Amino acid sequence: MSRQEPLVFIVSGEASGDNLAGPLMGAIKAQTGGCVRFAGVGGPQSEAQGLESLFPMGELSIMGLAEVLPHLPRLLKRLKQTAALARELKPDVIVTIDSPGFCMRLADKLRDSGIPIVHYVAPQFWAWRPGRVSQLTKRVDHVMALLPFEVSFFADHDIPCTYVGHPAIEAGAELGDGPAFRARHNLPPDAPVLCVVPGSRNGEVRRILPVFGEALLLLKQTYPDLHVVIPVVQSAAAEVTRLTRDWPLPVTFVTDMAERFDAFAACDAAMAKSGTVTLELALSNVPMVVGYRLNPITAFFVRRLARVKYASLVNLLADREVAQELLQEPCTPENLTAIIDELLRSSEAREAQREGFRAAIEALGERVPPPSERAAKVVLDAIRERGALEAP
User: pTM score, two decimals?
Assistant: First the structure.
């Protein structure tokens, strides 16, 4: 293998991880002058950077104990395949991205390979079962954290960790052009437009989108000219289409990532699942309500293991409930409708959220250099330590 062409074995198991992988790979290319190769598992963003995925990434996009069990034989097969390919290729570094259920098991299988393993997106042991953090030292060599407070947590457990920053801060969410989006999609300039974000996994889409849909029917009684915008990722597109087919109100689907932030900017409010999207909406200045439902079995364990007050990223960063969270039983069409109605009617309610958004964003710290460049440096430093890449 040429010293000028190190091999990075990269694995992401769902859309959010793939969205990290794409910019990371682009930054690695930029910092090596393109003298780098990639292998592993990924989705459209990784493939756009030249990765030929070992198998379709969507096969790994499963969340929750009850949801995983029926797919366990296939997941174990894919785990074995991925580990075997990594051992065969002998890459200079292995980068696992989020999806801890799969990635941590992969790291465990490869721990004796001698290949450095860098995990991108710190496992949320600070939120779930902190006693398990000791297992991480046996599996990975370095953790790249998205949130600033994670560094001290892992330092307390002697785990090398670098804060690289959250990808949302370099994605351009603040730059969305709402009027242009409305014009392109024939949305009336004065009509109320609601963003609905049901998630990227089919299981979560099946649980939450029907509830969101019932809330929309109630809202339509008060807002007869209501329009809906739904950002859709490839892995969940078929399920979203099926579940919204009979909705009696106009729906605009956004499948092009380049249009995502224009879509956010075109919306007056949002009904969103918990997760990264809450930070993206905050950066886009879109008031929201957060709703989520887990499988009852998964929810049973989550309630007993959770160590944090909030589920959504924007609330965690602000350390208060900026956007109201409706989780499990409180996530009803009636409750969702009441909150959205207030956000659409009250400028005071909207501004109160936006003030909280500013506090959450400030907590992320400096934006330069962007997260993808910081992450690329961590990965390349791991390669340089092996002597497979010259110092810059």
Answer: 0.80
Across 253-275, b (16+ Cβ under 10 Å) vs e yields bbeebebbbbbbbbbbbbbbbbb
Q: What is the residue-averaged pLDDT of the chain?
A: 89
Dig out the tokens for 104 from the structure: 């941590």
Q: For residues 14 and 242, what is the distance between their CA atoms, to the nearest angstrom?
A: 21
Q: What does the alpha-carbon distance between residue 258 and residue 243 come to, in Å, rounded to a whole number? A: 24
Question: How many domains does the chain fold into?
Answer: 2
Contacts 24+ apart (CB under 8 A), 245-251: 247/213, 247/216, 248/217, 248/220, 249/216, 249/220, 251/227
Lookup result for tokens 């003298």:
35
Domain residues for the domain of 236 are 173-362
Are 207 and 284 found together in one domain?
yes
| Model pLDDT, residue 65 | 46
Q: What is the full DSSP assignment across 287-314?
A: -EEEEE---HHHHHHHHHHB--S-SSHH
110 φψ region: left (φ > 0), alpha (ψ -120 to 50), beta (else):
alpha
pLDDT at 1 over 60: no
Residue 159, classed as helix, strand or coil, is coil
List, for residues 96-155, the tens digit of each pLDDT value.
999 888 999 999 999 999 999 999 998 876 555 555 677 787 899 999 999 998 998 888
- CATH code of the domain in which 356 resides: 3.40.50.2000
Same domain, 91 and 187: no
Eight-class DSSP state of 225: T
